[in-house]
Amino acid sequence: MNAYKSALNENLKPFRHGEVQPVELGPIHLKTPVVLAPMAGVTDWPFRSLCSGWGAALYVNQMITARALVEENSTTWKLAEFGANELTRSIQLYGTDPKYVSLAVQMLKDRLGVDHIDMNFGCPAPKVTRNGGGAAIPVKRRLLAAIVEAAVEAAGETPVTIKFRKGIDQGNLTFLDSGWIAQESGCAAVTLHARTANDLYSGHADWDAIAELVQHIDIPVFGNGDIWEPWDALRMMRHTGAAGVEVGRGCLGRPWLFADLVSVLSGEEPRLTQPKLGLVAEVMLDHLIRLLKFYDEDESVVVRRFRKHAGWYVAGWPVGKELRRRLHAVNSFDDLAAITQEFDQDAILPPEGVRVKRSHTGGPRRVALPENWLADPDEVVTLASSAEANVSGG
């Protein structure tokens, strides 16, 4: 049974015209509230530009760390680059020290002219949480408030949003406090990844938690977690009352997902729920061309960086083990072009391929925390610089 028939059986239809309301993030107007989630090592300008062509309303640059930015780390500044024609300059910032966060926000405004800053408080990586950083920060309410207030004050008219998880685990939920702190600190909106740090990326996102947060605060809430096809966005928004959706893993190797999300949220039928493999080949080559133009590096270096994307593009497709193996070892644009010519151009994505997981799949796993970290949520703490390791999160 394909995704469309499945949705009909669940009595789901595209939203009626006008049913989805635009979202205002300060001066930023999101006519259709669909956001590309920031993903470290993924949402660089080439990928953002690819997604923007399919219809996402806001495309957030990959996460950078405040301290490294302030200390003029050249790699961090490269990660923060925007496209010359990028209309809305949105970036995710991670920091643990209010002083460095404030300085970093000011530098992003002055040097890059950013239009939106999102802050990450959801990273579950052990090397970060064991030092009190990432998803461990919301446990300490005063620390979270100090960091967010510093960012908002330095940002001025530039909207600040924050992203966080439900909490450490089911016994230590912090998302309602985090939402309230964001609102009281002057954030324009929040995004909830509806899993705990203990969950990592396992199981199903808890959309009930998103609904609870929507009722708890007055600023817009974006729901994140398990948006694999356009019907998921319908289900999430109708179930939770969320103002919009943020899409991460679901668009990896499938940037056209945004076209269908915009369609169903605008009251139209989706167009590309089951695209042909020929389209996949075209987009893969386009993506690699964009990467080669953006990075001033040897072709082989850029192509090796693209390999993970190549795996995501063919996830769920019956391309065969040999072609898959060759894609994972591709070394040049010509290699990729030759391999994609061997694709069955008219093949249709099997229904079960739509929901094949991409990227992170681990969990559940016990969360590493500093000693007695959970004892006093109002404790005033200062984190070591090791809590600001530049890792992926959310």
Structure description:
The chain starts with a helix and ends in a 53-residue tail after the last helix. Strands 3-4-5-6-7-10-11-12 form an eight-stranded parallel beta barrel, surrounded by seven helices. A two-stranded antiparallel sheet has the order 1-2. Strands 8-9 form a two-stranded antiparallel sheet. It is an alpha/beta fold and 394 residues long. Strand 8 and strand 9 form a beta hairpin. It is built from 15 helices and twelve strands. Helices cover 38% and strands 13% of the residues. It has two domains: 3-273, TIM Barrel, CATH 3.20.20; 277-347.
CATH architecture of the largest domain: Alpha-Beta Barrel
Q: Which radius of gyration do the C-alpha atoms yield?
A: 20 Å
* CATH class descriptor name of the largest domain: Alpha Beta
Largest sheet: 8 strands, parallel, barrel
Tell me, briefly, the overall form: globular
Q: Helix/strand-derived class?
A: alpha/beta
How many helices in DSSP terms? 15
Q: Helices and strands, in N-to-C order?
A: HEEEHEHHEHEHHEEEHEHEHEHHHHH
Sequence stretches where pLDDT stays below 50 over 5 or more residues = 1-11
Distance between the ends:
32 Å
Number of domains: 2
CATH superfamily of the largest domain: Aldolase class I
According to DSSP, the number of beta strands is 12
Helix content: 25-40%
| Mean pLDDT reading | 92
**Strand content bin:** 5-15%
Strand order of the largest sheet: 3-4-5-6-7-10-11-12
- The third-level CATH topology of the largest domain is TIM Barrel
Please, what is the oligomeric state?
A: single chain
